Amino acid sequence: MQLQLNLDLIEGYKNNSQKARVLTEDWVSRQAYCPNCGKKPLTHFKNNRPVADFFCQSCSEEFELKSKGGNFSSIINDGAYKTMIDRVQSDNHPNFFFLTYSKTYEVQNFLILPKQFITVETIIKRKPLAPTARRAGWIGCNIDLSQVPSKGRVFLVKSGQVREPELVFKQFTETLFIREQPFAARGWLLEILKCIDKIKEREFTLEQMYGFESNLKLMFPNNNHIKEKIRQQLQFLRDKEMIEFVGRGRYRKL
């Protein structure tokens, strides 16, 4: 995988956002591959399709590209807030590609956010545009990657280093079962994964997970059996080989 962007493409362009779009879309078309089936190249949707930018002709996975120059940030600018919320709640949205590049126009980070990890909690509502703005009152949104479990942040390129496709494929496909879950069950799984992330040690205990009971109660105020739900979700994640049961209330991250 070559990380240099093709600067020959932007001769004649003056707008920086147009330059970034041309450079990064070209790079994805030439260098990226589908994390679901491994096939390349990805195909660019024609006519600026509003929902996604690329798709895989082999398995039909769709991807929307967001890119920026400079350092990687956990906050990603997106479009209209209401549109994004509607898409998330209907599950009618693509996976996301997030790409950052250096001052020398080399790709530094190329991240996939699988669509099953995009929830209402990951979408941050921005302030309405000022009355003097061309689109006065328009409300945009950001995607907050800090609200995404580590299992849902799949890097093809990280800090200028290309990851092995086998590792990318494994990480992307091992969480596809989450897509099959109803929204309520999906929310619980993602919150439990985030709790596991907060435990620094690779091995953790059921008692440590119970320590998140008050936070989970705030997330799910109608559930009066939080500890039981924690045990249920851990068992489910164990069955899906996301964690390993060691014995006597102890688990290990995989």
Written description of the protein model:
GO terms for molecular function: endonuclease activity. This is Restriction endonuclease. InterPro entries: DRP (IPR010324), DRP_C (IPR041368), DRP_PD-(D/E)XK_dom (IPR043025), WH-like_DNA-bd_sf (IPR036388). The chain is an alpha+beta fold and 254 residues long. It folds into two domains: 7-174, PvuII Endonuclease, Chain A; 183-253, Arc Repressor Mutant, subunit A. Helices cover 30% and strands 23% of the residues. The chain contains seven helices and 13 strands. It has helices spanning 16-31, 81-90, 165-173, 183-198, 206-210, 213-219, 226-239, and strands at 43-44, 54-55, 62-69, 75-80, 95-101, 107-113, 123-125, 140-144, 154-158, 161-162, 203-205, 243-247, 250-253. Strands 1-2-3-5-6-9-10 form a seven-stranded mixed beta sheet. 27% of the residues are buried.
